Amino acid sequence: MKRFPHTYVIVFAIIVVVAILTWIIPGGEFARKTMLVNGHERVVIDASSFKYTTNQPQIWEILGAFFQGFVNQAGIIVFILIIGGAFWIINTTKSIDIGIQSLVCRINNANKIAFIRFLGSDNVALVFIMLIFSLFGAIFGMSEETIAFIVIFVPLAISMGYDSIIGISITYLAAHVGFAAAMMNPFTIGIAQGISQLPLFSGIEYRALCWIIINTLAIAFVLLYAKRIKKAPERSPMYKLDHLWRNEHMQSTSLEQFKSTAKTWIIYIILTATGIILSFKFSSTTIHLGKSVFSFNFIAIITLYFVISSFIAIRKSLQYFILNLLITTIFILIIGVLGYEWYIKEIASLFLALGIITSIVYGYSANDTVKHFLDGAKDILSAALVVGLAGGIIVLLNDGKIIDTILYHISQSLKNTGEITSVSLMYLFQNGLNIIIPSGSAKAALTMPIMAQFSDLIGVSRQLTVLAFQFGDGFTNMITPTSGVLLGALSMAKIPYTTWFKWVLPFIIILILIGWLLLLPPLFWSFNGF
Questions:
Q1: Residue at which a domain ends, from 254, 279, 311
Q2: Run of H or E residues at 496
Q3: Is 285 helix (H, G, I), strand (E, B) or coil?
Q4: What's the structural domain count of the chain?
Q5: Which of 1, 22, 70, 324 makes a 20 to 30 Å CA pair with 140?
């Protein structure tokens, strides 16, 4: 059986095809103009200004396109590497693992409450875990990190009377549903909106509604299957294969926790003092949510939360304090983005600081910190490099003077198809492209420069085009055989790809249909940011 081409091979093949097209397609260009939209300057196409020009055939420029693509996407590449390295440091401390385990124990103990007993403590546990991972995917784009949780949650699911499919569903599937329906995912929404020249994370209100709807479907799908397997475990397609987990891997999943030290309290005091100083320096932060404007000292609120919650966390263990540092960082990220228009530089700096502080708190030496950071950067290096590689495609399209010609002819062919058809075709295109290029960051770098301008030509909101990209990128991530994250998670759970594909395919079909339906309301009604 022939191996499926590597993503790099596919992107390089596209680059070669584009270079050939520069010899065939006539050159052309639109005039661009700068407009003030929602207080932000935005460069858009003048749809009536297209004219043919002399094309610039590309051959040797193929190699130069690699270099220029990396230069053009350098900020995004560095951002991805820093985020990957910082989270690897956090993951090595097992703080997130311990926090989730603690939450599950609390939920099970809540079975004493009549309402919880009515719902079923197992159901409550599954829902809470899925929501946590979905929020991680929606807020900071958790993807590769889910692999580390498989060895914890698959045995846990089986011990609760379920199977390995439930174990991977409450972690991997939940995170990727959140990733697809994200409100603030920096790897997809952040990059796509930046390339489309939209305010960072604008349109968050409608995306939050989409997140609720899609997660409700995901939770219902998993709970219905869990109920069926609970009653008759032998109905699971993994029933025989799961005996490896039942017989060999049902050991305790408890993790060692370490007591806080004097150094922990010193870090706590320094961070508290820093928060107090910043509370005075930024005494009022203005946040715009829809037509509402909120001005308040949000920094002081976050500082107060940190002071109280961290004092409690430190008394428990080092890992609880690190977990609370992560939660506090997410709050700071939200305020920074909404109140101070942070972008990838500020977000990367924030998580780099979190990684460094985490390593100090946990007692890593400088060499250990660098090692873990490099391990994380190495783990995500492939995704970072493919962004630069994909950027080379845009370089050739621009230098060959054919990108505007392509946009012009596509817009002319779809001009009379209507907005619904145009948006539907963009959505299907993104879904199809995701099968061969699963990296959301790479697809954003590859498609959004074209799609954003194309949406201007057909009169569709750029925000809606980003949403079509977001859904198209996220849903098929859970079945594409080119996804290293999916194959890694399945390998950890010992689930054959064919078994997973058959089980999850009906859900993916439902998601694709629901995603298409969610693209329609912004065409007919006004939503903030669209």
A1: 254
A2: none
A3: strand
A4: 3
A5: 70
Q: pTM of the predicted model, to two decimals?
A: 0.67
Q: How many CB atoms lie within 10 A of CB 37?
A: 13
Please give the Cα distance from 44 to 504 (Å, whole number): 40
Distance spanning both ends of the chain, measured CA to CA:
46
Domain boundary at 254, 288, 318, which? 254
Crossing angle (nearest 10°) for helices 403-414 and 366-399: 70
How confident is the model over 294-342, as pLDDT tens digits? Answer: 888 999 999 999 999 999 999 988 889 998 998 898 889 878 877 887 8
Neighbours of 300 (CB within 10 A): 18
CB 80 within 8 A of CB 352: no
Range of the domain at 61: 7-74+380-524
d(CA 88, CA 375): 7
Closest to 479 (Cα-Cα) out of 436, 444, 443, 435: 435
Same domain, 115 and 217: yes
Contact predicate 469/448, CB 8 Å: yes
Q: What is the three-state SS of 265-287?
A: HHHHHHHHHHHHHHHHHCCCEEE
Token pair belonging to 503: 């089980």
More confident residue, 430 or 181: 181
Q: What are phi and psi of 43, to 5 degrees?
A: -90, 125
Separation in Å, CA 171 to CA 144, 219, 324, 385: 11, 12, 20, 26
Residue 374 lies in a domain: no
Instruction: Name the burial class of residue 217, with classes exposed (0-12), middle (13-18) and buried (19+) by CB atoms within 10 angstroms of its CB.
Output: middle
